[in-house]
Amino acid sequence: MTRRLTRPLALTATFFASSALAAGSWVSLSDQTILGPEAAMRAQVAKLSGEACKPAVRDFKTPGLAPTGGLNIDEVIRSLEKMLATLAPGDPARAGLEHSLKMAREQKEKGTKVLPLPVRREKGAITFETALKTAEALVGTPGRQATGSTSSDVAAALAAKSPRAALALLLAGHRTKPKDPMTLVNLAGVLTLSGLPREAIAVLDRAAELGGTLPAPGGVPGQAVALTNRGHAFLGLGRWSEAQAPLKQALALAPDLAEARMNLSKALLCSGDVTGATRELRVALRRTVAPESSDLIVTEDTPNTHGDDLKPREQASTRRAARTLFDLSRGATFDLPQLKLPRDRREAISMHEQYEALERKGEGILNGLHARATAVNLSQVLDPGERRWFELVNGVITTSVFEPEVWPSYQSAYAAHYALHKAFRPLSDERNKTIEAGMKGLPSPHTCADVDRVYDDAYQTYMDALRPYVKAQEQAMARFVSARVKFETALAANLPDPKVRAAKRAAIEASAKSSFYGPVVYAAVLISDVPGLFCSGQKVQEVPLELAELPTLDADPCGGLLSTMKMKSKVPSAALKASGLGLSWSLSCKKIDIELSTSSLLGTDWLGGFAQASLDWNGDATIFTGVKAEFKLPKGVPATGGLGAKEGLYIKFSRDGIQDAGMRVELKGSLGAGPDASTGLWEGKIEQEFGIAAAVAYWRER
């Protein structure tokens, strides 16, 4: 995880090209990222300084310098020495190289680690015009022929790890809008990625000179984007201390700007502050800022046990609770059946083979569920954005026992499980001693019936003592399975593809049934493992198990449909005063939404009216009508998304009539990137209702 520090993050194209596009697939900026113990992470971060703290500067004037080698003083000396060795003694270029080599060695003797390059108002700094010429030279003739760029074009170029292509597109955008400062801010981010941090700073200086207010895509201040790109450029130059100020300023404007915090983490590391770097990194690995004290601990205290206790927070891995990111309203019920237990030795003889057969049957059922769970090839079904979302959902499912909705029942189930195992040995030892004493006390001669009575009495005492432990485990395991299945199926319902949902439900069902065919049935085998009758002529009456069928999770909560299907259309109507009349509908697991709206009111293209109807599958409906405003990311940035607001009146209906009415305010926003909109970075929604029913309840409580 901590290797994410090895490369700084550019806020290219108003930073909303996803982290994978902007800085490699190793970057994780999700609120569900699991953080390892801080002490362990600090040790890992400390080991990264040698690899991470290298400038990345491309220098066209020194042909022997590797394009991404940077201006580390040792690398400069080696490159100059190598070039000097190739020149003949009388070569006119030799004197200049020898002088440069002498100066570099003197700089190293003074303690210089990075050969400084002048920027801004420093003597020898490059101008904005020179920076553009250098960028044009880097993209070459084909790149200079680019005529325009869209957000998806730039994002696709970055996704293909081709900053040169993205650079060509942004240069074309600058030629189209030479006075647009945001284009220059975006251009600066890609320049640093291309090994041109000096040029990036010159471009950012020109953007600042143009003045004006930078746009705030997705609500993130454009100035914060510019400051982050400036800090990123200083990192590229190896000027670690100077990088910190603009990055801290960016975070003051936009605390959720994880890219700025990731870059600040590297700046602190390379300045020698390992502790500060680690703490900033831990915050940066999440998209939004929240105290770690609210995280769930997902490390158990004792290895190879279940539900014993949690590690102390400072020694544990942690993540945020699932409710902060996922819809948990569609969980399925799952009740394990009760297993009949033998009342005496003779019933145990009859039922023991049935329990063993149940174990064998369970093994086949679990194998079948496992085959269904692994039958879907995710790479063929899901696009990259959906795959990333799947990994997030699946990661929470695999650690679901740590959620507050599940953890208590998980602890109880395994406390009962270990109590059973702890009680078994002394009870069986006492049973054996009782049998031994009983056999010694039999008269001589004695009959087989006398022996059976000794065994019957000893095993009756043993079974009566063990039965409460067996039932306690069964009941506790049933409660745990019920809570776990409800939680995990609610998470699985967040997956967009019906085939993937079905596969995940099969895996959840297998896990649930393994708790029955495993510890529950095993305990029954344990209590029924008795010797046969010694009087061979006696018959044992067969006792049927009468076991109810275990439930299944075949039913899809989304009815087998894609869970986030949306369609929109707009038909201009000259007959209406409000133009851009549009109809949209969306279908989900929970409801269908239909909206009729206009995109233009009062001569604007962002303010409109709307009327929306929502129908839940349980028969409830809501009508919401009023005014809405929408702000979308501008064209020319490698992202999708924006902000929206609705305000108006609502009425809620049920089968019994009107439930409530009042005023609703709805705010929502989303960010996405990549050639498809599904490569999501963030999506959020806030709803506030001021209803009649709520107001009445409030005043009654007063």
Biggest sheet overview:
8 strands, antiparallel
Radius of gyration, CA atoms, in whole angstroms:
34 Å
Strand order of the largest sheet: 3-4-5-6-7-8-9-10
Class derived from helix and strand content = alpha+beta
Describe this protein's structure.
- Residues 1-22 form the signal peptide.
- This is Tetratricopeptide repeat protein.
- InterPro entries: TPR-like_helical_dom_sf, TPR_rpt.
- Residues 306-317 have a biased composition (Basic and acidic residues).
- Residues 297-318 are annotated as: Disordered.
- This protein is α+β, with helices and mostly antiparallel strands and 702 residues long.
- The protein folds into 3 domains: 128-285, Serine Threonine Protein Phosphatase 5, Tetratricopeptide repeat (Alpha Horseshoe), CATH 1.25.40.10; 322-528, no CATH class; 567-701, no CATH class.
- The protein is 48% helix and 13% strand.
- The protein is built from 21 helices and 10 strands.
- The strands form 2 sheets. Strands 3-4-5-6-7-8-9-10 form an 8-stranded antiparallel beta sheet. It has a two-stranded antiparallel sheet with strand order 1-2.
- Helix 18 (407-440) packs antiparallel against helix 19 and helix 19 (448-492) runs antiparallel to helix 20 (498-527).
- The longest helix is centred in the C-terminal third of the chain and has 45 residues, at 448-492.
- The protein is elongated.
- 38% of the residues are buried.
